[in-house]
Amino acid sequence: MSLSEPPSETLADVLIVDYGLGNLRSARRGLERAGAAVTVTDDPDDFAAADGIVLPGVGAFREGMENAGPYRDALADAVDRGQPVFGICLGMQMLLTTSEEADHAGEGEVEGLDFIPGRNVRFDEGRKVPHMGWNELSVKRDHPLVEGVDGDASSTHRADGTAPRGGSVDGEYAYFVHSYYARPDAESAVVATTDYGVEFPAVVANDAGNVFGTQFHPEKSGETGLRILRNFVEFCAEG
Amino acid sequence: MALTKRIIPCIDVDLDEDGDAAVYTGVNFEDLKYTGDPVEMAREYNAAGADEFVFLDITASAEGRATMLDTVSRVADEVFIPLTVGGGIRTREDIKETLRAGADKVSINTAALQNPDLVNEGAAAFGSQCIVISVDARRRYDEAGEHYATVDGESCWFECTIKGGREGTGVDVVSWAREVEDRGAGELFVNSIDADGTKDGYDIPLTAAVCDSVSTPVIASSGCGGPEDMYEVFTEAGADAGLAASIFHFDEYSIREVKEYLDERGVPVRL
């Protein structure tokens, strides 16, 4: 399978929640390239029928949660039903319980969606913030989102021609832009990490496995990102 | 592994005689040469391992604007890497429609010098991560005394210019870099009028002066003639990203060759 051309068939119906933030066009195009039929919606009544739900996001946590607030109950229902819910960048941070970000703005903490217990914290001094650019993924545990393509070196492969370690995206690069990072309460929530002077979670997931997120932007992470989006779409199709 | 240094191809896009968007590249200070179709080139660079892609609208005409936004959208549909769009962005509304067309970041130059509050407004409305401030710097040796940089043994400073370097503004590049960082710029895009088109290498004193003064990521631009120039600007000036046009457009080097050269010398790159 190559992701360099659009797929010939649609695997799953994926919904992008349009809560007024984020570059929805890129996320949409990435998901379509990965085999999804994409609907962008601001109507929570649409959630139940979808094979999977994407929570995009760029910007500040407080503003994000204020905008996403009206979808809190509908998202919680989707999680309870076992629907895949995928948060990207700020969308991932919003899956946690809270964030220091509003604290730094002197406005007190803001509640997140609390699907993955934990807190988002700011990078310490001593490095450029935001962490912006391409950095390496280190896979910590199995999850459908980070699978590679075992035995098929023609699609996702390292630039040096070797297969990804363990049939996963371990060792591949992804594109990050963020100043805060997730610190889940449970170590089991960490699927992959990245090193930026501190090792922080790049991919998180809940114990049930249907709520997950990436700190990086898969829709901007080249072939590796498209592989992850494809994994998500396949996961949605199986559900 | 640390954050990698980014290798960024850049296209200059103008309208051709039929009014369609086309890529043009300056060759040896002479006329611009037709180089290709922007969408096709974007697709190729995406596949070739570019870390980002920069699209500069050089029409600078109101009538070209709609065509350019449409072209940006078609480019955005082909690249699954960050896309920066610059040229002709003067207002908050311009920023908004460029982002909506599919750009991840906008590059603002003259309009920020004329109206510095645009930087604050853009960062507040859309996030610092998408506000790139571009400068066209020119060396100035014209005043007595010691300046912060030395080029070929002579003390100099760097001035922000407009209109492709033809007009000075009196604004010092380093002070301006600090100011726009304070105003919320997320990245600095540093062009050199002196180095542009020479292929003799980036303006190292300029790039170093900016990198040493701000903590915002810096994209070095102008003068790249090959991988050794990228190496120099990363290791000697401290740039976060290196931009090049003609060496890639005319197949003098592939992105892969540049990255392998850097990797062999210990510069972290995405291979």
SSE inventory with pairings:
The complex is a heterodimer of chains A (about 240) and B (about 270).
Chain A: E1 12-17, H1 24-33, E2 36-41, E3 52-55, H2 61-68, H3 72-81, E4 85-88, H4 90-93, E5 96-99, H5 101-104, E6 110-111, E7 116-122, E8 131-136, E9 138-139, E10 173-178, E11 180-184, E12 190-195, E13 199-205, E14 211-214, H6 222-238
Parallel strand pairs in A: 1-2, 1-3, 3-4, 4-14, 5-7
Antiparallel strand pairs in A: 5-6, 7-11, 8-10, 9-12, 12-13, 13-14
Chain B: E1 6-15, E2 21-26, E3 32-36, H1 38-48, E4 53-57, H2 64-76, E5 83-86, H3 92-100, E6 105-108, H4 110-114, H5 117-126, E7 131-140, E8 149-151, E9 154-162, E10 167-172, H6 173-183, E11 187-192, H7 204-213, E12 218-220, H8 227-235, E13 241-244, H9 246-249, H10 255-264
Parallel strand pairs in B: 1-4, 1-13, 4-5, 5-6, 6-7, 7-11, 11-12, 12-13
Antiparallel strand pairs in B: 1-2, 2-3, 7-9, 8-9, 9-10
Give the rounded overall mean pLDDT of chain B: 93
Report Rg of chain A: 17 Å
Sheet bearing the most strands of chain A, described? 8 strands, mixed
Shape of chain A: globular
Tally of contiguous helical segments of chain A:
6
Percentage of residues assigned to helices of chain B: 25-40%
Q: What is the CATH H-level superfamily of chain B?
A: Aldolase class I
Gap between N and C termini of chain B, in Å?
A: 12 Å
C-alpha Rg of chain B, in Å?
Answer: 17 Å
Strand content of chain B: 25-35%
Q: Shape of chain B from CA axes?
A: globular
* CATH architectural arrangement of chain A: 3-Layer(aba) Sandwich
SSE series of chain A: EHEEHHEHEHEEEEEEEEEH
Measure the end-to-end span of chain A.
Answer: 22 Å
Number of domains of chain A: 1
Number of domains of chain B: 1
Number of strands of chain B: 13
Fourth-level CATH superfamily of chain A: Class I glutamine amidotransferase (GATase) domain
Number of helices of chain B: 10
Largest sheet of chain B: 8 strands, parallel, barrel
